[in-house]
Amino acid sequence: MTEFDRRALSLPASAAPALMVVIDTEEEFDWAGPFGRVGHSVDALDDLGRAQDLFEQFGIVPVYAVDYPVADHPDRAAALRGWIAGGRAVLAAQLHGWVTPPFDEPLSRRNSYQGNLPPALERAKLAALTARVTDSFGVRPVIHKAGRYGIGPSTPGIIDDLGFEIDLSICPSFDGRRDGGPDHTRYSADPFRFGPGGRLLELPSTAGYCGMLAPVGNPLHGLVASPPLERARLKAAFSRLGLLERIRLSPEGHSLADLKRLTRKLLADGTRVLTFSFHSPSLRPGCTPYVKTKDDLTKLLGTCRAYFEFFKEEVGGRFSTPFQVRDEFD
Ligand SMILES: [Zn+2]
């Protein structure tokens, strides 16, 4: 398990909560199928405007974490390039290793987590990604998000070398170990400095536990790590009873009520920096498990809108970007 040495950062309790919006901007692929090098499309890029329009109504400058297939289709990404050039959006790079050259690793679920790749290959793929993104967007990305959020032991050194300054890969309370992925259960929602010379800034995605058992949420999930059926039953039972549920600050698979509950809990715990995120293919019905129909899409966008209203009006929060948040810490 990768647990980085880190220096915690926090805004004063009196600070208005800051919300960043991050869109994992990637190809459409079969979420249930095995990982493939081919057979994906980037058609949903045409639908990014649905989200961008909504963000702009709130004065939100979103982060688009683009991966190789997106950067490889500059024609389809023209609108996005314009928003970035105009300061209406922020560019980040995300590594989907299975569709990023060089193609030297066997395809597997385990290898879909970036940090499981041999360090030299992780470096080569990140270098290829950085070059392709820079070429397509005319800006060198300095914000990084690991593929399937699998930041590994070699990742900080590599991304620091490649000129990245901010990382978005930590997903608090996420435990992907059963799938060969990382264990982020020991991280909180709060930003920190880490990596070579403490130069990298981590801005975790926002996720956490809610419910009566939330204070012991992490150890409990560790305890029920096996066997799988028991674990699934326990999780479902806890969640049904409102005792313990893991929520990601995302409209994918979560209701507005869930998102409000998580937000109130984190704010009460002192968190002042939050990240709202989803995947770009969710903007086109049928491309992710979260949005299968047009109604699902309407619902997803409605949840986004209602959450942003809640964050602004009820929480008294403000919308921010990774760069603005960084400036507050410096
Ligand atoms: Zn992704």
Walk me through this protein's architecture:
- This protein has helices at 48-57, 68-71, 78-85, 109-112, 119-137, 155-161, 217-223, 228-240, 256-268, 294-314, 322-329, and strands at 7-8, 18-25, 63-66, 90-94, 143-145, 166-167, 192-194, 200-202, 207-210, 245-248, 273-279, 318-319.
- The protein has 330 residues and is α/β, with parallel strands linked by helices.
- It has 2 domains: 15-206 and 249-329, Glycoside hydrolase/deacetylase (TIM Barrel, Alpha-Beta Barrel), CATH 3.20.20.370; 208-247.
- The strands form 2 sheets. Strands 1, 2, 3, 4, 5, 6, 7, 8, 11 and 12 form a 10-stranded mixed beta sheet that branches. It has a two-stranded antiparallel ribbon with strand order 9-10.
- The chain binds zinc ion.
- Residues 24, 26, 94, 96 line the site of zinc ion.
